[in-house]
Write a structure and sequence with these properties.
- The structure is a single chain.
- The chain is mostly helical.
- 69% of the residues lie in helices and 0% in strands.
- About 2% of the residues have low confidence.
Length: 421
């Protein structure tokens, strides 16, 4: 139940109270902020009660309708920032937090990459302990949730490894991409990302085997059963196993490539946005953006999978997937507009060669798998069918001078001569 009348009544009472009983402060800045927040809240109330439901229903459909409306608000905010000048856009962030709008201080990234530092008698492993900050559990938790979204081990590992290659390739643009080799491949890929993916796959296995038979809360006799039922309210109502099968046809292959590309672009936007908008990594807006993508990413992936897997039933891309794609592109356009000099810094030639080689190999494999190999397989199948018809004594319907036709006619004539003699 959406309680549309109840929400409308409460909203109306709040507006009547503010209009008749509350004195409006003589502060233009404060009134502007409050008016914008009130407008957003009214839109959220409308969306939570009236927006179209998505594929998820737990813990409650209104929860996912709320995040759909938040997605619309965030995209509108990004469009507003995109249409400002660079100076005005950065200074506008002061309205959200007065501490923003100032250039970020330079930091030293990379530094000493020795795992064991013999020059430090107090703690030779200080380089490792320095990396054990809040980003370690964030990496683990992030990849655990991404695995629950993608539901495929290979795709998760490809995205994880590809992002490390992107950090190598772009460390000349963003200083915080400059990390030690063991930080890239041991701390990130193997420990944090790998462990998060492993735990995510174990959770997926449990969810796929879990029985989904629901019973009303008031029909459960014991308190323990009621508490267990309340806890399970935050698990899926039913389960769909994702089978991407990228090599099965060209549509799926291009869809998987597009998903990987958009995932990597969204990951890069996290670092570039806070760089061009002058937001410190520990700022709460950076965290709120990550929380936002955690809540909308799963719905978007489910809508993309349904659109790719059953295009006859799902004839258009889902609303959340559409908005997430638009947000990812808009964020990148903001980065390009606000700091084109950083984006246009030339990539080292040997790195460019590696990326061009990788793209060329993907292009060649695509041509071979879905065009050359497919035609060759069909041709071989036709020849096999014709040979089968010949063995059964049936003349295949072929062009007059086809070699199998000539072979069949010759064999038939020899057999007729032998039978006559």
């Amino acid at each position: 139940r959406t309680h549309t009348v109840t929400v409308l009544f409460i909203l109306t009472c709040a507006l009547v109270y503010i209009t008749l009983l509350e004195e409006t402060p003589q502060d233009t800045t404060y009134n502007t902020k409050r008016g914008i927040v009130a407008s957003i809240l009214v839109f959220l109330c409308f969306g939570v009660t009236q927006a179209k439901d998505g594929p998820f229903t737990r813990p409650h459909p209104a929860y996912w309708r709320f995040w759909l409306c938040v997605t619309v608000v965030y995209e509108l905010f990004l469009i507003f920032i995109l249409f400002q000048t660079v100076h005005d856009g950065r200074q506008f962030m002061k309205y959200i937090d007065p501490k923003l709008g100032v250039p970020l201080p330079e930091r030293d990234y990379g530094g000493n990459c020795l795992i064991y530092d013999p020059g430090n008698n107090t703690d030779p492993f200080h380089n490792i302990w320095d990396k054990m900050d809040g980003f370690v559990p964030a990496h683990f938790l992030g990849w655990y949730i991404k695995t629950l979204m993608i539901r495929d081990w290979w795709m998760c590992m490809i995205i994880s490894v590809m992002f490390e290659f992107l950090e190598y390739s772009l460390e000349h643009q963003l200083p915080n991409f400059s990390e030690c080799w063991w930080d890239h491949w041991i701390m990130d890929v193997l420990v944090c990302n790998g462990l998060g993916i492993y735990c995510g796959m174990k959770t997926l296995a449990w969810l796929s085997m879990k029985p989904y038979q629901w019973q009303g809360l008031w029909n459960i006799p014991t308190y323990k059963g009621k508490i267990k039922r309340i806890a399970f309210q935050f698990t899926p109502y039913s389960w769909v196993k994702f089978e991407w099968k990228p090599a099965s046809n060209l549509r799926r292959w291009l869809a998987v490539l597009g998903i990987i590309f958009m995932f990597l672009l969204a990951e890069l936007n996290t670092f570039y946005l806070k760089f061009v908008l002058w937001m410190p990594p520990e700022h709460y807006l950076v965290l709120l953006r990550l929380v936002f993508f955690v809540n909308v990413g799963g719905v978007a992936m489910r809508e993309i999978y349904d659109f790719m897997d059953d295009p006859k039933f799902h004839k258009k891309l889902g609303q959340q997937a559409w908005l997430v794609a638009a947000i990812t592109v808009t964020e990148f356009l903001i980065v390009v507009k606000y700091d084109p000099n950083t984006i246009m810094l030339p990539i080292p030639f040997f790195i460019m060669e590696c990326w061009l080689l990788g793209i060329l190999l993907i292009f060649i494999w695509t041509l071979w798998r879905f065009f050359i190999r497919q035609k060759w397989t069909i041709k071989q199948g036709v020849h096999w069918d014709m040979a089968t018809l010949y063995q059964k004594g049936q003349s295949p319907d072929l062009p007059q001078f086809h070699f199998l036709q000539i072979w069949f006619v010759t064999k038939t004539q020899i057999a007729d001569i032998q039978s006559t003699n």
